Amino acid sequence: MSAVAAEWRKLLSLPSALVAIGLTLVAMPALGTSTARRLAAQLDAGGDGVLGTVTTLTVGFELVPFAVLGPVVLGVVIIGSEYTRGSKDSGGGRQITTSLTAVPGRGRLLLAKAVVLAGVSAALAVVVIPATIWLAQTALGEHGHTWDALGPRVAGAVVYWMLMPLIALAVTVVTRSGIVPMVFFVVNSSFVSVTHLLTRVTPLAAYLPDMAGTRMFTAQGPVHGGLVMLAWTAGLLAVAALVFTRRDA
Amino acid sequence: MRAAGGDGHPGPVIELNGLTKRHGGKVAVDDVSFTASPGRVTGFLGPNGAGKSSTLRVLLGLDVPDAGTALVGGRPYRKLRNPLRTVGSLLDGGGAHGSRSGRAHLTWLAVSNGIPRSRVEEVLDLVGLADVAGRRVSTYSLGTGRRLGLAAALLGDPEVLVLDEPVNGLDPEGIRWIRRFLRAYAAEGRTVLLSSHLMGETAGTADDLVVIDAGRVVARGTVPEVVGGHASLEDAFFALTEERGR
């Protein structure tokens, strides 16, 4: 328990983590609302023809795989910050030596980090995702939907937001630096989705964790997609635990 | 190798036995054995790259040895419950994240080992950091960073102190302060193990010495025993290390 309490403090005293949390809280609801407003105006003016591949049911949800970057950044920095070298002036030490002398059980330390990360991500998700969807659907006005239709998708999106950061944590344990995972996750969620492009090359890419996880909030086999993503998360965490326990600090 | 000194002390608290550690193919620590006893300051002396830090990292459970054991009070470090309350340690480089304040660093450390939060302010005062405790660690000088590391080591009011090059970066006043502090700490019956490459400084602080060179212990005993017939510890040290024909 004390290890979890310490990890909680560590994460919430990192400026980069606070920035990620703050941006997520503000950006996603704001973007969701503005998209929905624009769409509502087009629908009022020109009917269903403006929708294309989007439906009024997915408004707001298209931001879920993008705004998950906030929790993903938390997953990267919760490990990456341990391996950041101090300045040459200060001797170039890394925090991981302090963390492991305080909590020498590798499994215990990693579990504490995963618990804190999942908790913070879940808290962020249950606030931001329903708020965004509510704001977006409200902005759609008469084109909006009821929670009967939206609820399961919201639940799926919350699960997605809990699993993605855990995957980021596991990858960062292996790389021992936040830089490579950070670049990959930022690029993949915002500029060019490598995993999405892969789905055009091979149907197997649909089984990649983020692609499968997306199905939890697009209602295209949410249970199956969720289980695939869960299996990835568990597998990657197991690899991370194995590496972390066997490696010298 | 000279005979072990420090006989007659109760319950050796730090005990290294046949410790060997390889980094890649290179042997960093080669069959190292010694004890550091309570009530005494043990100096762990050797040139840079002799294997001091590698030995201390194994002792603190950070790295796994290829052979041998390192015990604190009869137990490996990794088996200690709330280890900061038994062993305080300071490794080269400080080990605090630059974007947190010194106080925030000590606070999470205290929380991790069930140490009362009031202790954070106590150790900040003790090492003279109270004024800068609210500033980010990345703004600290080398000496201030060492003081923070020392505060972290003292946080759990431990029976054992393991310090790697503690006087690095400290000004003369800080060096004097730490020498007196460690002497007083050992006088309370606690165990102090400090590594250094500074011979004069170590001779003035330590009761017992372990001299390491190229991964092997070349001498151990009380300071007079290790100095032997030489004019100074420095002379003894070079005689011991040059004997090995490096």
Automatic annotation (TrEMBL), chain A:
Record's keyword annotation contains Membrane: yes
Keyword annotations: Membrane, Transmembrane, Transmembrane helix
Superkingdom of origin organism: Bacteria
Transmembrane segments: 64-84, 114-137, 157-175, 182-203, 223-244
Protein name (Swiss-Prot/TrEMBL): ABC-2 type transport system permease protein
UniProtKB/TrEMBL annotation, chain B:
Domain ABC transporter: 14-239
GO molecular function: ATP binding; ATP hydrolysis activity
InterPro entries per record: AAA+_ATPase (IPR003593), ABC_transporter-like_ATP-bd (IPR003439), P-loop_NTPase (IPR027417)
Keywords assigned by UniProt, alphabetized: ATP-binding, Nucleotide-binding, Transport
SMART domains per the UniProt record, alphabetical: AAA (SM00382)
Database matches in Pfam families: ABC_tran
Name of the protein this chain belongs to: ABC-2 type transport system ATP-binding protein
UniProt record similarity statement: Belongs to the ABC transporter superfamily.
